[in-house]
Every structure is written in structure tokens, then in C-alpha cells.
UniProtKB/TrEMBL annotation:
Single annotated GO MF: DNA binding
Stated name of the protein: Transcriptional regulator NarL
All residue ranges annotated as the HTH luxR-type domain in the record: 166-231
Keywords, comma-separated and alphabetical: DNA-binding, Transcription, Transcription regulation
Taxonomic placement: Bacteria, Pseudomonadati, Pseudomonadota, Gammaproteobacteria, Oceanospirillales
One protein family per Pfam: GerE
GO biological process, one term: regulation of DNA-templated transcription
Top-level taxon in the UniProt lineage: Bacteria
Length: 232
């Protein structure tokens, strides 16, 4: 039997820590690629894996807790009950189209940053409408966040920064071209890639032509195969 990857051990320990701190019905951990979709790293419940498959395709744009809303802020922990009243949350599209059909009601997210940009998210959910995340629980999570962020810096964030620098040095890429590559390596369509980068398809084609030339490939499939070791 192969040894677990160190990051997998960290994620399992992180889930255990959260379960010791407060009651939750599910936990999800994500790496958040700037301008891109959430990439799920690990979930505490297989039902959450199925639930989250459609989130990047259909629901992120109606989610008031999506990390894009908190770039440029100092928010580290948020919950639906902190954002709005129970009555207001009960009327939101994200609850009624996404959480509630999957058996969940309350959500709390913890953000982790590098150089003032969100790079990872820990998301916690509860099923019962009668058990919101309390102020005391939010305070506890606020106190815990810096320690987890420090661990993430050691386990994930420094590796991503190293990968970006290696790509730039090895293939003489620009930072924006590396942004494109990071998203392309997740396997999303060009349409989705354009939406998350905020660019047009012709602009994307220009970026890809330059990337193909520098990396010496002729298609997305070849690009993904050649640069797979740099994927988050």
C-alpha cells in the first residue's frame, strides 16, 4: 500500500480539527486559482463531491459567499447567518437551487490569502435550519484561521509560487500566460476559461498561440500532457 501524500494527511488533520472545534455535517477544502473556478481538493463526505460537480458550471455566479466577492477585503471567516437574516437567506437562489435540494442549509467559509489574494477556502455546511453558525463559533474560527493559513503556506501556497516561477523561467512566459495555463490545466472549456479570465475568445486564442509556441506544443491536450506536473 502506498504512503499517503503529505497534503492528504494535512487535509485529514484539518478536517479532524474542525470537527473537534464545532459540529458540522460536511467540510470541503479547495484551492482557489485566481480568475478560475474552485478546484476541490478533498471532501469529508462523498455526497458533497457529487453536489459540487455542478457548482462551477451553474451556481457560483449566484453565490453571495463566492470568494470573488471578498477579494480586496480583510474578511477571513464568513457565514450566511452573518451576511443576512434567516428570512433573507431563505429566499436566496443559492439556498433554494443548490444547498437545500442537496440537504444542506447553513454554510460557513474560511478564506486563506497570499499577498492579499484568496488562494484557498475551507467550507463548512450544516443540514438543520435551526442550527446556524453562532457568534461564538465564528470567533473560534477567526482565532484558528491564522494557524491554518500558516500551515497552508508551508504545504500548498509556496509550491504554487514555485511552480509559477518555474514555468516563467523555463518557457519565458508572462505572468498572464501562466494564469491562462493554470486554468487550462484544470481541463475546463475555452468558454469557461474566457469567462473566468474576463477576456474574449479572440484574446484567449492570441494567448494560446503564444503559449503553444513557447512551450512547443500544438493543442490543449499536448499542453496539459507536457505541463501536468505543474497542475495544482
Amino acid at each position: 500500500m502506498s504512503e499517503p501524500h503529505p497534503t492528504e494527511e494535512f487535509e485529514q488533520e484539518l478536517f479532524s480539527l474542525i470537527h473537534r472545534l464545532l459540529p458540522v455535517d460536511g467540510i470541503r477544502f479547495y484551492i482557489y486559482v485566481p480568475w478560475a473556478q474552485l478546484k476541490q481538493e478533498l471532501s469529508s463526505d462523498h455526497d458533497l463531491d457529487d453536489m459540487m460537480e455542478n457548482y462551477p458550471k451553474k451556481y457560483w455566479s449566484i453565490d453571495p459567499m463566492h470568494p470573488s466577492h471578498y477579494e480586496g477585503t480583510d474578511k477571513t471567516v464568513i457565514s450566511n447567518s452573518q451576511l443576512m437574516s434567516h428570512e433573507a437567506w431563505s429566499q436566496t437562489e443559492i439556498l433554494n437551487k443548490f444547498y437545500r435540494p442537496n440537504g444542506y442549509f447553513h454554510n460557513c467559509d474560511m478564506f486563506f490569502r497570499q499577498r492579499d489574494r484568496i488562494v484557498a477556502i475551507l467550507s463548512m455546511v450544516r443540514k438543520s435550519p435551526a442550527i446556524p453558525f453562532t457568534d461564538a463559533e465564528m470567533d473560534l474560527l477567526h482565532q484558528t484561521q491564522p494557524f491554518i493559513e500558516y500551515c497552508l503556506e508551508k504545504m500548498y501556497i509556496s509550491e504554487r509560487a514555485h511552480n509559477r516561477s518555474s514555468l516563467i523561467d523555463e518557457y519565458h512566459l508572462t505572468a498572464r500566460e501562466v494564469d491562462v495555463i493554470e486554468i487550462a490545466l484544470t481541463g475546463v472549456s475555452n468558454k469557461v476559461l474566457c469567462r473566468h479570465l474576463g477576456i474574449s475568445l479572440p484574446t484567449l486564442r492570441t494567448h494560446m498561440q503564444r503559449i503553444y509556441s513557447k512551450v512547443d506544443v500544438h493543442s490543449n491536450a499536448e499542453l496539459i500532457s507536457k505541463l501536468a506536473k505543474y497542475a495544482l
